[in-house]
Specification:
It contains 6 helices and no strands. By secondary structure, the chain is mostly helical. It has one domain. Helix 4 packs antiparallel against helix 5 and helix 5 packs antiparallel against helix 6. The protein is globular.
Length: 134
Amino acid sequence: MYTETQILEKQADAEAAGLAGAELLDDVGRAVQICNGIGACWMPERLRALISRLFPMLVLPADIHDLRYDQGGAELDRLLADVEMLENGIRNANHKYRRFDPRRYIVQFVMLQFYIKLREYGSLSFNKKEDENA
């Protein structure tokens, strides 16, 4: 969990990097409650903390993703949330690292691996809601 000050810093970072979904961080109280770094809420806290420490460039995209998953919806909403996280991870790597810095491409590769795992196992954490138009 984060403090309100940390969420405000995340808002500024997300806007500076041009991350999609940055506006979700505007509800600071909700973000404090929902965002937990990289990993599902059912994962052990220590494991989430370790993964977040290993891949700090992907924490902010994961926080936005947490808020999207909490909003929930249909399977299409989940797909769009996962794609948004992939794009945000790549965008954040591009923002933080120069073109010829190998860390840029390492982070992008790791983000792709996270995306693959999200597609396989993310439904366990997604707030599934019935399609209101069905």
